[in-house]
Amino acid sequence: MADESQSDGQLGALGSYIRVQRQLADLSLRQLADLTKVSNAYLSQVERGLHQPSLRVLRSIADALNLSADSLLAQAGMSASKGGDNGPGAGSPPSTESAIRNDPELGPEEKETLLHVYRSLRKSP
Questions:
Q1: Which end of the chain is flanked by fewer CB atoms within 10 Å, N or C?
Q2: pLDDT tens, residue by residue, 69-89
Q3: Is the dihedral of CA 5, 9, 11, 12 positive or negative?
Q4: Terminal-residue alpha carbon distance, the chain
């Protein structure tokens, strides 16, 4: 039973994470469904933590939300690669936008504000 409640909690956390990222991207659930080619009803269940999405769906969501698939898979408790050369510290560092999106100490409004400021600074000469 402990494993089941832990799994339910993890699904809920993943769903909340996806919802926040969708809101930060200023997308409706229907728009995300169009981008991912996944049904609106299914995405709604994922966001509410009622369904464990497949690897394909997670990657599709990550692409649509402009997230790294690795960060979304980590939120889902999955690893992008099992074994191989991608041990701790391997690969490129997370982007600034990804770091802001993944900061658990920031609320949705704070993340949105920081992303807006960061993007405006990047466009400055």
A1: C
A2: 887 777 777 654 443 333 333
A3: positive
A4: 57
Q: At 123, which amino acid appears?
A: K
Region 105-120: mean pLDDT is: 83
Would you state the torsion angle of the CA atoms of residues 16, 60, 46, 101, taken in this order, to the nearest 10 degrees?
A: 0
Q: pTM value?
A: 0.59
29-77 pLDDT, tens digit each: 999 999 999 999 999 999 999 988 888 899 899 999 988 888 777 777 7
Q: Which domains does the chain have, with CATH numbers?
A: 7-79+94-123 (1.10.260.40)
Other CB atoms closer than 10 Å to residue 109's CB: what's the count?
A: 10
User: Can you tell me the distance from the alpha carbon of 53 to that of 57, in angstroms, rounded to the nearest whole number?
Assistant: 6
**Alpha carbons 81 and 107: distance in angstroms, whole number:** 30
DSSP string covering 100-119, please?
HHH-TTS-HHHHHHHHHHHH
